[in-house]
Specification:
This protein is of the alpha+beta class. It is built from 18 helices and 23 strands. About 10% of the residues have low confidence.
């Protein structure tokens, strides 16, 4: 395994650095561990877990989604570093190891003082013929939190599938299970439950348990203390794959949270008003030649030369986040999610008077996709994936109307495939065709025809789009691969056409999925599960979806005292909002008896709107305590990111990233905080549908059209 270090940005006493890990072996690399020493302190990091630290000596472990590298393949661990002087930044590599060959290394760096296992319980949930479904529940009773765990045991049966953990090693009936990305942290008293399918005649309990490398002889109600290594220093927070890394200026001052936060229970703003403003956000993100009915007074025409470098008109579409790049992958995922909300809650959009507005929002994206799709009328020849060089773009802080940098266009084609991008774009067009069919049959047919061509291209020319376009890898890399998009795209084509082959393709690809965190721009596993549960009576899909949702409800996903289900640091609220929408859809269309999913959906949205201990609204221009310093170039109204004044323009309806920790007081309203205070197309997509659902249930006052236009003019 080879490792290298490079600095991509630096300023004064700070830098953005990357450690590149390359599999230089002839065999596939399953899991990796790198130890290095720096002359600076790492403050924020992503694409890996810091599992041990001694001063500036760091040990980094692969994430679940970048642990497997084929021969010659590379991945990167990124971080923000800071040092007291402007000396040259140095990284000295101490070791690099392949964990599948040396699993004891992982145990050493995960160990903590006085780890206690109170109980390990084995249950059989269902049995048939030569197989069964089982569960292992382990209760942790230590005195200190731990950040990762590994459980080993001998089993008199063969594991054929496993969830709520990762199977990282096995042999001669000995199994090793490591935590998933979302359930590694254990607090005293926490219980983890690993579910699995097993094959074999025996349903006897596993034996010879060990937890983080030490033997466990626990039985229910009995405590076993494991004497391991001394406790390591507190770990920095983990940044998952998410929106792109933007500017990294000096750290802003941190203000202490209020000592006496207001109690929860603050009434949420009107769902009708929130729905209206959420759609204003999409108008503010428009690129290209704006229409005469543009409602955002501080936005004008921009990027009118997009596509000129390749002889095409690629104007239009949406800017991704607080920057000005048009990233096709998350844009398509956002249009699919926005369309899904309309399909399920069409009546709510009609009743709120927002149907025309949401159709305009969807069409602004689909019109761009039709331009980006290069076809001979029968088959896809190419699909333009991106407009704008992210590094050039992120070096500029100013409005899109004043951009002067080059904006190159990047494409996929048969020689440079991108199944994930093509299948997601097919999903967006297919979903949008359902939305437009009641009002514009010709447009719906055009969208569906292009969707079919794109899906065929995705299936015939397989590959990850981020492997074909290196310029996107540090921003929207396809971590989950393309199988989920092939399943998702086929499910949407089946929903739009009713054609059985698409259902079969979706089901076949679904069987190859390894579901990850939750529904997001990269991973569509659980959304596909819901679509298949809607389309069939297959119990597997219900079981998969309900198992995932139950994790969010029962605390396997951390829940703050105020009730926010918090999955991870970067854009935490988009995960909660996406899950809220899907929980609502599942409750409404598949299993109405599961009322807890309906309750969860409402609670998460109400929390976002201000029903939380600090009465903080996380949506710009909504409520009495909403964000004022969003990380957004156009809305800031300044060319200086460090300008101390609030943003000159209110980006109405924009959902910010949210708390960077599982804490009700972790959010900081700072323009330089791109992790917690940036906005993005995909943040609002699920949120908008979830709000429309609540409007359909509870109603709510609406602003007049004149008032909505006046908001922007006043801003």
């Amino acid at each position: 395994m080879q490792t290298t270090f490079e600095v991509s940005q630096n300023w004064g006493d700070g830098l953005v650095g990357f450690v590149t890990v390359k599999n230089s072996q002839a065999a596939r690399l399953e899991n990796w561990l790198v130890t290095f020493e720096t002359n600076f302190e790492i403050e924020t990091y992503w694409d890996g877990d810091i599992v041990a630290r001694d001063g500036n000596l760091y040990t980094v472990r692969s994430k679940s989604w970048n642990s497997k590298l084929n021969p010659g393949e590379t991945t990167r661990f990124g971080f923000v570093g800071r040092q007291a002087t402007a000396d040259a930044h140095q990284v000295t590599f101490i070791s690099s190891d392949i964990l599948s060959d040396r699993p004891s290394l992982l145990v050493a760096v995960m160990a903590h003082e006085s780890v206690a296992v109170e109980s390990v319980e084995f249950t059989v949930a269902n049995q048939w013929g030569n197989g069964f479904v089982g569960e292992l529940s382990l209760t942790y009773g230590g005195t200190q939190p731990i950040e990762a765990w590994e459980l080993q045991f001998d089993a008199p049966f063969e594991l054929v599938d496993l969830w709520h953990g990762e199977l990282v090693d096995q042999g001669a009936g000995r199994y090793t299970v490591r935590n998933s990305a979302w359930n590694g942290t254990l607090l005293p008293g926490d219980t983890i439950t690993i579910g699995f399918k097993a094959s074999g005649p025996s349903v006897n309990a596993p034996t010879n348990y060990s937890f983080n490398g030490e033997a466990v002889a626990a039985t229910p109600g009995e405590s076993v203390v494991l004497d391991l290594l001394p406790e390591k220093p507190p770990l920095p927070e983990i940044v998952p794959p998410g929106p792109p890394v933007t500017e990294l200026p000096p750290e802003p001052p941190v203000e202490a949270p209020s000592a006496d936060p207001a109690p929860p229970g603050t009434p949420s703003p009107s769902y009708g008003e929130v729905l209206q403003k959420s759609l204003l956000f999409y108008e503010a993100q428009r690129s290209g030649d704006l229409p005469a009915d543009n409602r955002i007074a501080w936005r004008g025409d921009s990027a009118l030369g997009d596509g000129a470098d390749v002889g095409l008109d690629l104007t239009g579409g949406y800017y991704d986040a607080g920057d000005h790049v048009k990233f096709g992958f998350p844009m398509a995922a956002s249009i699919t999610m926005l369309s899904w909300g309309v399909i399920e809650y069409y009546d709510a959009y009609q009743a709120s008077g927002q149907l025309d507005e949401v159709l305009d929002a969807i069409a602004w994206g689909t019109d761009y996709f039709l331009k980006a799709h290069i076809s001979d009328g029968q088959t896809t020849q190419a699909l333009y994936a991106q407009v704008g060089d992210p590094n050039l773009d992120h070096a500029y802080w100013g409005p899109p109307e004043a951009m002067t940098m080059a904006r190159p266009a990047y494409k996929i084609d048969a020689d440079n495939p991108g199944s994930d991008l093509a299948a997601e774009t097919a999903a967006a067009l297919a979903a949008a065709s359902i939305v437009f069919r009641p009002t514009d049959v010709a447009y719906a047919d055009r969208l569906l025809d292009n969707a079919k061509q794109l899906y065929a291209f995705a299936d015939d020319h397989r590959g990850r789009y981020s492997d074909s376009i290196p310029e996107v890898q540090d921003f929207y890399r396809s971590w989950s691969g393309y199988t989920d998009e092939l399943a998702w795209g086929a499910a949407w084509l089946y929903k739009a056409t009713g054609e059985q082959p698409y259902l079969s393709q979706s089901q076949q690809n679904y069987q190859g999925l390894n579901p990850g965190w939750t529904q997001n721009w990269d991973d569509k596993s659980y959304g596909t599960g819901i679509l298949l549960a809607q389309a069939t009576d297959g119990q597997q899909y219900r079981g998969d979806v309900e198992g995932w949702l139950d994790n969010w409800l029962t605390g396997n996903i951390p829940i703050t005292e105020g009730g926010l289900a918090w999955l991870d640091q970067w854009g935490s609220l988009r995960y909660s909002a996406n899950t809220a929408l899907l929980a609502g859809i599942y409750s409404d269309t598949v299993n109405p008896a599961q009322g807890q999913y309906d309750t969860f959906s409402r609670q998460q949205i109400d929390y976002i709107l201000g029903d939380n201990p600090t009465q903080q609204s996380y949506v710009a221009g909504v409520g009495t305590n909403s964000p004022q310093y969003l990380h957004h170039r156009a809305a800031s109204g300044t060319t200086d990111i460090n300008d101390p004044a609030p943003n000159q323009h209110v980006l109405y309806g924009a959902l910010v990233g949210g708390p960077s920790l599982a804490s009700d007081t972790a959010y900081m309203d700072e323009r330089t905080d791109f992790i917690g205070n940036e906005v993005a197309l995909d943040y609002n997509a699920g949120f908008t549908g979830a709000v429309a659902r609540l409007y359909g249930q509870a109603g709510g006052e609406l602003l007049s059209d004149a008032a909505l236009v006046g908001l922007s003019e006043a801003a």
